[in-house]
Amino acid sequence: MTEPEVRSDLLLRLESFYDAVPRQGARAELIGPLVLFVREGAGWPYYARPVRPDVQVSGDDVRDVLGRMDELGVPHQLEWVNDLTPSLAQAVQDAGLTLQLCPLMVLEPADLVVLDAPGVSVSVMDADDPDLALADACAHVAFGAGIGTAVGEGGVAERDASAAELDPARVERLRAGIRSGEQVRAVARTDVGPVASGGYQHAAGVAEVVGIGTLPISRRRGIGAALAGVLAREAFARGEHTVFLSAQDEDVARVYERAGFRRTGTSGIAEP
């Protein structure tokens, strides 16, 4: 295939992944040209997205989905491959949502670079890891401080306070997901314990690296890139043939380029 054909095939694989992942734990409700995934049972709510790549979406279509989300009491959120459904970008803005266009980055096995971060140990977690709650809390603190790579004040004290507030049921769901293979988590540790964590979700041979968060006080030490590399290596070792991620912005994208990820397209995320 030519290079454009290879890129198109890859984007369609990612599109299929976005559709397949929520079907593992949610019911699908068709609402015009969009499909809303409603989680069955406990866990993080899913999103709405196009029913197929080439569909045309209007602001009224998005408003219909938002109304149904309000009825169900779930957050307003849509996610899609913007290169395949470009009409949705304008539609979500017409419906009053904030649009974020993020670099969509794919890693080829031959390009994988597993980096070392000085003074940091990065490893895949097992279900019985005693640091699971602390690792999860790292991501909560990191994302609570906002996206980006800037060093900040959030550190061990904030991590420990966040871990103390975690719902024990959430931690048990994480353990169950790791045990079943549904989830894969990795942690970066220093002499103060976990300082960063991340994971990947997978379906149909595709793995998406998600939720990499580093305590603000520990940023700019190469930890995010190291975590992404370890997670990608694990995904390939478990038989996944495509590994990708969606970077929050161009600065974050440059972090993941160090691990071998290359920009392939653009993902769209719409929220209030």
How would you sum up the major sheet? 8 strands, mixed
Calculate the terminal CA-CA distance, rounded to whole Å.
40 Å
Low-confidence stretches: none
Q: What is the helix tally?
A: 8
Please state the average pLDDT score: 94
Compute the CA-based radius of gyration.
18 Å
DSSP summary, beta strand count: 11
Query: What structural class do you assign from the helix and strand content?
Result: alpha+beta
The general outline is globular
Strand order of the largest sheet: 4-11-5-10-9-8-7-6
Percent in helix: 25-40%
Order of helices and strands: HEEEHEHEEHHHEEEHEHE
Strand content: 25-35%
Describe the structure.
This protein starts with a helix and ends with a strand. The chain is an alpha+beta fold and 272 residues long. Helix 2 (59-72) packs across helix 3 (87-94) and helix 4 (132-144) packs across helix 5 (156-165). The radius of gyration is 18 Å and the shape is globular. Strands 4-11-5-10-9-8-7-6 form an eight-stranded mixed β-sheet, sandwiched between helices. The protein has a three-stranded antiparallel β-sheet with strand order 1-2-3. It has helices at 3-23, 59-72, 87-94, 132-144, 156-165, 168-180, 223-237, 250-257; strands spanning 26-31, 34-39, 48-50, 78-81, 98-107, 121-124, 184-190, 193-203, 206-214, 242-246, 262-271.
